[in-house]
Amino acid sequence: MQRRKFSQAALAAASAGTLAALPLSVQAQGKPPAEGKDYLLLSKPAPSEAPAGQIEVVEFFWYSCPPCHAFEPAFGQWVKNAPKDVVVRRIPLSCRDDFAPQQRLFFTLEAMNLLDSLHVKVFNAVHVEKQPLNTDASILAWAQKQGVDKAKFEETYKSFGVASKLKRAVQLQNDFKVEGCLLYTSDAADE
Q: Residue 111 and residue 157: Cα distance in Å, rounded?
């Protein structure tokens, strides 16, 4: 797995969840993004689920990612205020097999129409309450504590529909050439 390197300015922006966190000198540079450095041009267009005439924004995230957690409030607000011609699609990453339970959690919440009420709570459970939502059992227990019907959640969590969405998410990750996930450790040698 490749590990992306982020500059201090980009990390500050992700942590604050807003461009305003960048130093003024960085904001004022106004350099256009450079292909190969700031973005990767896809050899073929990735599939879109947006209706004709709509703009699709795809967010790849991982519930256990600190910058994703820090970015969520700003992104969530942006989604609420986005123009009517913008469709947002969130895709949970799967950089390793042990990411699958959190992917299943996201797609289960989506299938049960519970994302609006529980998506942010998942981030908070992982990052604020320090709950290890990384196994099927821990996720089921957490969902029950949220008042979700255990049998319905478990049935949806193990459903063919959710399993299909997991496979589709991995394919999209490949289509968009997501190279890997930034993994955080306390080992300075990894930086």
A: 9
**Residue 55: how many other CB atoms lie within 10 Å:** 12
Q: How many residues does the chain have?
A: 191
| Global pTM exceeds 0.85 | no
Q: What amino acid occupies position 1? A: M
Residues 6+ apart with CB under 8 A from 108: 143, 153, 156, 157, 162
> Cα–Cα distance between 74 and 16 in angstroms, integer?
8
Q: What is the C-alpha to C-alpha distance for residues 92 and 80, in angstroms, rounded to an integer?
A: 19
CB-based contact 17:73 (threshold 8 Å): yes
Compute and round to an integer the Cα radius of gyration of the chain. 18
Q: Residue 177's pLDDT band (boundaries 50, 70, 90)?
A: confident
Higher pLDDT, 32 or 146: 146
Contact residues for 127 (Cβ-Cβ < 8 A; gap 6+): 66, 69
Task: Give me the pLDDT at residue 29, please.
Answer: 57
What are the E-state strand segments in 36-155? 55-61, 86-92
Reply yes or no on whether the pLDDT at 81 is more than 60.
yes
**Which parts of 49-169 are beta strand (E)?**
55-61, 86-92
